[in-house]
Amino acid sequence: MKTLKYIVMLAVAILFALPMQAQKDEKAVYQITDDVVVPHTMVQNQGSSGTCWCFAGTGFVEAEILRKYGEELNLSEMYFVRWAYAKKFDRFIKMHGVTNLSCGGEIFDVLYALAENGMITGEAYPGFLPGFDRHNHGELQNAIEGYARTVTKKSSGRILFEVYPDVVEAMLNAYLGEVPAKFEYNGMVYFPESFAKKYALDINDYVQFTSFMDQEQYKPFNIMIPDNWTNTPSYNMGFDEMMAELDTALYKGYTVGWAQDVSDKGFSRKAGVAIVPDDDVNKIRESNPKAFKKMTDEEILEKVYSFEYVMPEKVVTEEMHQTAYDDWSTGDDHSMLIVGIAHDQNGNKYYKVKNSWGEAGPYKGYWYCSEEFVKLHTAFFTVNKEAFSDEMSNSLSIE
Length: 399
Known about the structure:
By secondary structure, the chain is of the alpha+beta class. Helix content is about 40%, strand content about 15%. Strands 1, 4, 5, 6, 7, 8, 9, 10, 11 and 12 form a 10-stranded mixed β-sheet that branches. Strands 2-3 form a two-stranded antiparallel ribbon. Strand 9 and strand 10 form a beta hairpin.
């Protein structure tokens, strides 16, 4: 009986192991190989907060400190977030409520906050709600917006400009925690200002750049996007030049902040890739005759966004990029950090992108966005001026 019981148990174990082994041996549809990876810090998680801009910007600052000082820091995103909330609230009141008070922002906002208020480690100021270990800003955002509307109603007969900064500060303390006046790092005591001075970055060393057909070449302009509440200008350049400068920066060892749109169906959370698939049935069939030979045109089109196959992509032009911005197909609903260049099994080019959704997806928090996707859905990039090619630095007259 014992022998029979052992045989049955062994058979059951084998049956369960077979599908697991098959799953383990199954190759990913997109087989990505890294070509260039710029040193950077670990993936973080923004949780239920609309602060991707700050996580991308903080990662950008951390990568710059790593490059310049060889020190891998974990900085507090929420220290920068509360700076932005206070600034945006004050701006909202002074603009009579006719401006953006959302939780969104841009990567450059972190540089502004750093220059004005210094920085603090994530260990010293995690910025979680009491009792939480994950960011959740739903109630904070509603509270900020509600109080802003209350202030603009002038219920006391006038704007209480002497009062509202203290109230906003108290709200931020309640939801994010009070900022410590000083903190310890590697056995030394720092203030936010002294910590920033130790790992000094000059905000004047950084710029935004982009490419739009309706703007003058090699000149800065204010790109009209709601989350660009600081009105930070972006240098305009040719479409191909923009992509070439992105590559130049990465090859020179600089990460690049990326403001873009991920609402497109081509951005797959499951597959961990972002593409602009071609909808030409003949091209799709020719790309993989074995898979698509027996499918009807309708069946093939149903597979375009399935991510079951490596699909051929559209060739994105500057006209397509401009139109996507003009008709709102490309906005600025997410910010991430580009840290490398890669290719798939067919030789297609991708950019390795550090996201802020924790270690999600098949690439543990990283996404691989095709060159065509980056072309189509880029609002603008943020970079150290030293990352430009000499030719572009001369064209932009950047010192």
